[in-house]
Design a protein that fits this description.
Blueprint (H helix, E strand, L loop, with lengths): L36 H14 L4 E2 L2 H13 L8 E5 L6 E4 L3 E5 H6 L4 H16 L2 H18 L8 H18 L3 H17 L7 H18 L3 H8 L6 H15 L4 E3 L5 E3 L2 E4 L5 H21 L5 E4 L3 E6 L3 E6 L10 H10 L3 E2 L2
Parallel strand pairs: 2-4, 8-11
Antiparallel strand pairs: 1-2, 3-4, 5-6, 6-7, 8-9, 9-10
Length: 352
């Protein structure tokens, strides 16, 4: 999941595609692919060798990766997960199901296990959906389609190797393409839905942090520069945020909604809006994610609200309780009594 940072340039991965591969490719279909599995495996081995000096076994990454893999019913032995010693903020998936989480990224999210799990799930989505092989085969078909149909001279082994090297470099620098990034995002959110220890709103928190970092540089760009920046690698962070927000709403059966400014909705009724500060807004995101899981798992009527003089509590049998910090509300009118009144209007159960 490459973070679009114009002040940071991704360079550490270039070494993966330097050299000549010692494998022979035949132009014949294999499971719908022209370039076959052995080519991806060879590229993956080259990736591991190129990064051997920077790679290391990170216990945190391994722990979280095992949970992500298990949630999706995949075989952990088919994947490689490692840390990468670099201050760059990134995580990536190389050919052969080799995944790295970079030290700079872990520092950026302060080691947050839920966010790291979300990003790992995104990278596993690339691997599980065979994005490298599909991308290479699409470009191979575009380049040598006539030869594949017998209407032109077929490329020789050296030409194929050169093609794979060049295209792999392009993938390293510019990603798999928008369609596959959206597919990986969908895989990540589906994974989170299966993991009870990861909040459904993790993607919201992550993409907001990324956008806060990106926005100053983005605001200075011309429309043409913005289009060029986002034409291939990843969708803009606000669009990714909107996607996760929509998925949370759908997961709760339309009962729970969340706006970018942290406004929380229940049954299409505005309940509260937090003050405009990161801690309060992120807290609202986490709350919405928790509410959505409760509603999905136990039903809307499982939510039970009560209040004291300064706070509103939501209690759920078997899932603990959460607190709305009223002093973090943006509207002075959003006092405890008003919040409770809004909850009643939304159809929620309230203890007087």
């Amino acid at each position: 999941m490459k973070m679009k940072m114009w002040s940071l340039k991704v360079a550490a991965f270039i070494g993966i595609v330097v050299g000549v591969f010692g494998f022979h490719l035949q132009a014949q279909a294999y499971s719908g692919f022209w370039v076959k599995d052995d080519a991806e495996y060879a590229m993956g081995q080259r990736s591991l060798a190129a990064r051997a000096g920077q790679s290391y076994q990170n216990p945190l990454v391994t722990e979280l990766a095992q949970k992500v893999i298990a949630a999706n019913g995949l075989d952990f032995s088919h994947y490689t997960f490692q840390g990468l010693r670099t201050n760059e903020i990134n995580a990536d998936c190389a050919p052969g199901k080799n995944i790295w989480v970079w030290d700079g990224f872990i520092s950026f999210v302060n080691g947050d296990k839920e966010i790291i799990s979300y990003v790992l799930a995104h990278e596993v989505g690339h691997a599980a959906n065979r994005h490298w092989l599909k991308t290479i085969n699409k470009r191979y078909t575009n380049a040598y389609g006539a030869a594949l149909l017998g209407k032109a001279i077929a490329p020789n082994s050296q030409q194929i190797q050169s093609f794979l090297l060049t295209q792999s470099q392009i993938i390293v620098l510019h990603g798999y393409g928008l369609d596959k990034e959206w597919e990986a995002d969908a895989f990540a959110q589906s994974t989170v839905e299966k993991m009870s220890d990861v909040n459904l709103a993790t993607g919201l928190v992550y993409f907001r942090r990324v956008w806060i970092m990106e926005e100053p540089a983005f605001a200075k760009m011309t429309a043409q520069q913005r289009q060029a920046q986002y034409i291939n690698p990843h969708p803009p962070s606000p669009e990714r945020w909107q996607y996760v927000s929509k998925r949370i709403n759908e997961y709760s059966g339309g009962k729970v909604g969340i706006d970018y400014d942290g406004t929380v909705w229940l049954n299409k009724n505005r309940i509260f809006k937090p003050v405009n500060e990161e801690g309060a807004i992120e807290q609202a995101y986490w709350m919405a994610g928790w509410l959505a899981r409760v509603v999905h798992d136990l039903g809307f009527n499982a939510l039970l609200f009560k209040a004291d003089d300064s706070n509103v509590f939501v209690i759920t049998p078997g899932m603990g309780s959460k607190t709305f910090w009223v002093d973090k509300f943006d509207d002075d009118a959003d006092d405890v009594n008003l919040i409770m009144a809004k909850l009643k209007i939304a159809g929620a159960k309230v203890i007087e």
